[in-house]
Design a protein that fits this description.
Helix 6 (about 195-205) packs antiparallel against helix 7. This protein has one domain (about 5-245): Ribonuclease Z/Hydroxyacylglutathione hydrolase-like (Metallo-beta-lactamase, Chain A). It is α/β, with parallel strands linked by helices. The protein has a seven-stranded mixed sheet with strand order 1-2-3-4-5-6-7, with helices on one face. Strands 8-9-10-11-12-13 form a six-stranded mixed sheet, covered by helices on one side. Helix content is about 25%, strand content about 25%. It is globular, with a radius of gyration of 18 Å. The protein binds fe (iii) ion.
Length: about 250
């Protein structure tokens, strides 16, 4: 699929980059770019298999603009693995939960670049972008990672939800029918998301936001208030993670 423009008012632009095949059995992952007044934030840039193509596409979409931020929603390899290359080849500063800054160097982060990997505190933070723009890193801990953030963009009204809302194998970029999309989403959320109590807390937090699009890091995005609310309601009711897994704690048999 080619680049998809989720929002563009001439000053502020949100681009879902062309889907880069990571090859074989690697999980499909989305890379998003937000640009405000020529300054960019790349979200969850990905691993080595997609690095060179995502980097060149990012620089081409930025044009004469510059990349200021690398946002890493959590510590997984499909998000972080190539961060050393991104820090070497751009002037961007990378941000990740304070829980993960000392784990990321195991992906091969050069110690010279260590001060450009900045911790996000548990309560989240606000990024200034392009002079008068703001992007909000919202706490979304345990959805699924223990130190996990989502980006809310109030200009485009897009919530970048990371692994929450992920779908595997749907084969389309935008959800058209919530009911028929559930088959690609339910199993993943039941196993990867931590508990209904956390899902419900997240739903209560994001209901106060004006959201037109929810864009996850895997699979299709949800557009329009009705679809967005359907997704939030579904999350608030879903039993998952520790709500379901306890009966599986038995010694395996031959
Ligand atoms: Fe993950």
């Amino acid at each position: 699929m080619p680049n998809i423009i989720l929002y563009d008012d001439g000053i502020h632009k949100n681009v879902l980059l062309e889907d880069v095949d990571a090859g074989g059995f690697a999980v499909q992952a989305n890379q998003h770019l937000i640009i405000h007044h020529g300054e960019g934030m790349m979200l969850d840039p990905g691993g080595h298999k997609v690095y060179s193509r995502v980097l060149s596409e990012t620089l081409s979409v930025l044009g004469r603009g510059s990349l200021r931020y690398l946002f890493l929603s959590h510590q997984d390899p499909d998000i972080v693995a190539a961060v050393n290359g991104w820090l070497m080849t751009t002037d961007a500063t990378a941000y990740i939960s304070a829980l993960w800054t000392r784990f990321v160097p195991h992906f091969g982060l050069d110690h010279m670049l260590a001060d450009r990997l900045v911790p996000i505190p548990d309560e989240g933070m606000v990024f200034e972008i392009g002079g008068d723009g703001q992007l909000f890193a919202l706490p979304a801990h345990f959805l699924h990672s223990e130190g996990n953030f989502q980006i809310y963009d109030p200009i485009a009204k897009i919530l970048y939800s990371g692994d929450l809302g992920a779908s595997i194998g749907a084969g389309y970029a935008q959800v058209r029918s919530f009911e028929s999309h559930l088959q690609f989403m339910t199993g993943f959320h039941q196993r990867y998301m931590t508990a209904n109590s956390v899902m419900r807390a997240w739903a209560n937090m994001v209901r106060s936001l004006d959201i037109e699009i929810i864009a996850p890091q895997h699979g299709a995005f949800f557009a329009g208030k009705e679809m967005v609310n359907q997704f939030i309601d579904w999350c608030a009711d879903l039993r998952c993670g520790i709500d379901l897994i306890i009966p599986q704690f038995k010694l395996p048999t031959v």
